[in-house]
Amino acid sequence: MYHSDYIIILCVIIVFALLSRRISASLLSLPMVFMGAGMALDALSHDLVPMDIEHELTRTIAEITLIIVLFADASVIKLSSLKRNFAIPARMLLIGMPLTILTGTLLARWASPELAWSTALLVAAILTPTDAALGQAVVSSPSVPQRIREGINVESGLNDGLAVPIILAAALMSVAATGTSVAHAPDNLWLFAALQLTLGPLVGIAMGWGFARLLDLAIERATITVVHQGILFLAVAFLIYLAAEAAGGNGFIAVFLGGLTFGNQLRHDATFIEEFMESEGQLLTMATFLIFGAVMVPLALEFASWKTLVLALLYLTVIRMLPIWLSLSGLGLSAWEKIFLGWFGPRGLASILFALLIYSDYPIPGSDDILASVVLTVMISVVLHGISAQPMARWFGRRKKP
After folding, report:
1. How far is CA 192 from each of CA 98, 177, 178, rounded to the nearest angstrom?
2. C-alpha distances out from residue 83 to 147, 197, 255, Å
3. In the chain, what are the domain boundaries?
4. Structure pTM?
5. CA angle, corner 155, sides to 116 and 252, nearest 5?
6. How crowded is residue 162: how many other Cβ atoms within 10 Å of its Cβ?
7. Which of the following CATH numbers is that of domain 3-18+29-399: 3.40.50.12280, 2.40.330.10, 1.20.1530.20, 3.40.50.360?
8. Alpha-carbon torsion (365, 252, 383, 30), positive or negative
9. What is each CA distance from 1 to 24, 60, 92, 215, in whole angstroms?
10. How many CA atoms, within 13 angstroms, populate the side-chain half-sphere of residue 230?
11. In whole angstroms, what is the distance from residue 38 CA to residue 45 CA?
């Protein structure tokens, strides 16, 4: 990158900071602004990121941001409230998610009959996980009932990890259909899936509880400063992720459940979590969507077709909303609440990360088209969910009974 590129990026951050209050009250969102800035930078400088490192750089930053966002978001969820309303995220994960993957597979195959069933399943599994950060105005709005906000947050926190075994299985089947193999593939996929879904939660809960106790002890004995509480928080998030991955579990599930345990077991004031997300967390999100706009969007537009556009729109509407509506039947939710929960399934960091993982590690025919479908879906989601978050949250408030 040239000095002029850095100057432009820093100027965008400064302008955003100066106008942040106005922007947060408008239809614009942070991901929209920085994705647009990245696209503009690419138009001005096509060599913004060297070709040989652009995918790895995007993947690394997306992974770091996702770890921190999952841990921080989970840390502020109150288990006492979640226990009363756990049926909503449980139904969305256990019924809505499989139905979404099934519907997505069928429609991907319908749009591209030449696509192998395993590849159609792969696309559907990559595009099923949601990203609550893209609808931050909804998750943080007091106009939206707490049970709805927590449902969106918990679903987005756990569906990333639950999708991993399905994504890996579909990728391996797609590779096997070509007669090739992948060196780092697990020997036993069923054992791999079982370990991912059991060791991840165990590591996350155990480490979240242990570090909450340690931090409480350090605060009581006055051995830690307020500033270093935030640093410890950051280090714990990454330590949980790496420990879970080293043990054979899923790091994303571990991070979310670790954050949930950490936040609920900590007895002392935890305002440093919100302060951290309002500064360092925001900066990472800026970097992620800036690079996404500069690197991934131009690639998607290069390989985009009417099929990828139709699939992107279907994944954000019918494929998501119908299964969620069905999964929430019988819970006493109003039609508006079910529409609201179905619509706010934005696609973001997890889908980007999984698509880049498959693109770089698995020799699948048509991988350019797969990446284009995913990136186009995320790109449209950033815009549609960004501009609809504030109005729909306010509309929710107006629908409340006086």
Report:
1. 19, 21, 23
2. 10, 21, 20
3. 3-18+29-399
4. 0.83
5. 75
6. 23
7. 1.20.1530.20
8. negative
9. 30, 18, 43, 41
10. 13
11. 10
Provide the token pair at 65: 């941001």
Q: What are 73-119's pLDDT values in tens digits?
A: 888 888 877 788 889 999 999 999 999 999 999 998 888 888 889 99
- Contact between 160 and 350 under an 8 Å Cβ cutoff? The reply is yes
- Distance between start and end Cα atoms, the chain: 55
| CA 116/CA 172 separation, integer angstroms | 12
Q: What is the 3-state secondary structure (H, E, C) of the chain?
A: CCHHHHHHHHHHHHHHHHCHHHHHCCCCCHHHHHHHHHHHHHHHCCCCCCCCCHHHHHHHHHHHHHHHHHHHHHHCCCHHHHHHCCHHHHHHHHHHHHHHHHHHHHHHHHHCCCCCHHHHHHHHHHCCCCCHHHHHHHHCCCCCCHHHHHHHHHHHHHHHHHHHHHHHHHHHHHHHCCCCCCCCCCCCHHHHHHHHHHHHHHHHHHHHHHHHHHHHHHHHCCCCCHHHHHHHHHHHHHHHHHHHHHHCCCHHHHHHHHHHHHHHHCCCCCHHHHHHHHHHHHHHHHHHHHHHHHHHHHHHHHHCCHHHHHHHHHHHCHHHHHHHHHHCCCCCCCHHHHHHHHHCCCCCHHHHHHHHHHHHHCCCCCHHHHHHHHHHHHHHHHHHHHHHHHHHHHHHHHHCCC
Tokens of 205: 């809960």
State both tokens at 401.
């009974």
Which one, of 399, 271, 259, lies nearest residue 335 by Cα? Answer: 399
CA-wise closest residue to 339 among 400, 392, 391: 392
Rounded (5°) CA angle 132-312-357 = 70
Do 392 and 386 contact (CB within 8 A), yes or no? no
Q: pLDDT by residue (tens digit) across 308-362?
A: 888 899 999 999 999 999 999 999 898 989 999 999 888 888 888 888 888 777 8
Which single residue is written with the structure tokens 């999708």?
A: 163
pLDDT tens by residue, 374-383: 899 999 999 9
Q: Which residue has the tokens 């020997």?
A: 187
The radius of gyration of the chain from alpha carbons, rounded to an integer in Å, stands at 21
Centre a 10 Å sphere on the Cβ of residue 336 and count the other Cβ atoms it contains: 12
Q: What is the reported pLDDT for 260?
A: 92
